[in-house]
Amino acid sequence: MKEKREEIFTNGEAPEEDGKEREIIVVEIDGTGVPSREGKGCWMEAKLGVMYTGKELVSKTAKHKRYILKEKQVYASLENVDEFGKSLFTVGENKLSLTRAKNMLVVGDGDPWIKGLIRDWLPGAVYQLDHFHLKRNISKLAHGDKKLAQKMLRLALGGKIDKLISLINTGYILGKFSEDEARTMTRYLNTNREGIWGSSAFKDRVEGKEVLVKGSGAVEKNIDIMIARRFKREGMKWSKEGASNLLALRVLYQDEADWRRFWNQQAA
User: Fold this and answer.
1) Cβ distance 31 to 231 under 8 Å?
2) Total Cβ atoms within 10 A of residue 102
3) pTM, to two decimals
4) Nearest-5° Cα angle at 143, 148 to 189
5) Short-list 226, 236, 224, 197, CA closest to 213
6) Residue 260 — pLDDT band, cuts 50, 70, 90?
7) Does residue 1 carry a pLDDT above 70?
């Protein structure tokens, strides 16, 4: 991946792509900690992105709906945000002709680095905040007060962010929230306010409405399968080199053609 990335961003070469113009590409992004050998309590952040162009229902008769992601592509690494953004763009361009897509939706949990990545490497994309994380953060702030949590959530989902921030500031003055809690939540809301209903921008432009997600279930599942189950077992600790190498192989394994090509090259 590093070589392909440098061809584009260092040498200025046009990336390989299939030339197709897709109706929409959805990109879900998240990160998780990997335990480091550097010391007790030390972690490295692994970042993962899942890209797909649609969802196909597995069974129309099943009690619970389950979808297969169309043209699914996965990239994960321990790179910094800038390098990860370049690599994710490179994968998207090579595999899905990312810059030719008519629409692009990026889903994240609200961490500022995701918004920065979108700005720098996925320009033109519409951002959608994961509603699960929004609800969880509001519930945590409310400290078990369900009525207060419901009121704050209604304001958030209703787009009344300034009113919600005013309520939080009042709560701080009355001693309901600490200064740090109020400041952190205010920053979170200001960072993500335009993404609360981001996917609704495509409701009249995209046929397959099931792809207009408001949650990051696909990336959460892939983080569990690709990273958590392999790197975060009890007692495990990793060097950055070791974790990076194994993660690269696990990413490669997601694409059968790339996997076979890699091993054929090793055997040559």
Assistant:
1) no
2) 12
3) 0.91
4) 65
5) 197
6) confident
7) no
